[in-house]
Amino acid sequence: MIVIVDERKLVTEGYNSLFDREGVASAGFASGEFDEWVESAADEDVKSVRAFLIGDCGEDAVSPRKIRGRTWAPVIALSEHHSLENTLRLFESGVDDVIRKPVHIREILARISAISRRAQEETSFTEIGAMRIFLDGRDPEIEGQSLPLPRRERRILEYLASNRGRRVTKTQVFNAIYGIFDEEVEENVVESHISKLRKKLREKLGFDPIDSKRFLGYRLVG
């Protein structure tokens, strides 16, 4: 999930719509609401956020360093003021990148992926057994052959791969894929997506690579 912080509801709703078209969950806040949420949200909710986009909030209304105290997800400033002085001020406040508007939504996603790779010293994919799972939106490969997946199933596989070696709960998967504020979708939809994903992977691999335990969650195995 990606969080957008901007005082203008029209802006946050616009980004929500654009991210939704790319199959990426998002949520919008005004700065006051966001500050309260960062301080009070459960660790599980904060860690489900892939990146924070900070728009027009007034100087010092949002503290990147306060965000950094809860998570290492990238913090990116969306700037409408194209001056060196403003750009330097934003970097000094603690953001990881400054993007000048207007900008295509795919460039934002590409920058988020690039920052995350550098921070975690990761390649753009992870290999688990015969699976090569890309972390940049491409379909996975099994023994070198592409396996086309619907975007939700692909995002779930990417999320499981990024948490390799750890179990993730149904709630964590739902929050990462749909966002923690999506009240129109039932959490149990995750079970349906994972069931379909397991069937496709089992047909290609000859076994089920998603280990699940009741109450403990899911884990990707080779």
UniProtKB/TrEMBL annotation:
Q: Which residues form the Response regulatory domain?
A: 1-116
Q: Does the keyword Phosphoprotein apply?
A: yes
Q: Indicate the residues that the entry says bind DNA.
A: 123-222
Q: Is Lipid biosynthesis given among the entry's keywords?
A: no
Q: What is this protein called?
A: Transcriptional regulator domain-containing protein
Give any single GO term for biological process: regulation of DNA-templated transcription
User: Species name for this entry?
Assistant: Mesorhizobium alhagi CCNWXJ12-2
* Superkingdom in the source lineage: Bacteria
Where are residues bearing 4-aspartylphosphate located in the sequence?
56
Q: Give start-end of the signal peptide.
A: none
Domain (OmpR/PhoB-type): give its ranges: 123-222
Please give the SUPFAM superfamilies that the UniProt record associates with this protein: C-terminal effector domain of the bipartite response regulators (SSF46894), CheY-like (SSF52172)
Keywords, alphabetical: DNA-binding, Phosphoprotein, Transcription, Transcription regulation
Listed GO cellular component terms?
A: cytosol; protein-DNA complex
- A Gene Ontology MF term for this entry? phosphorelay response regulator activity
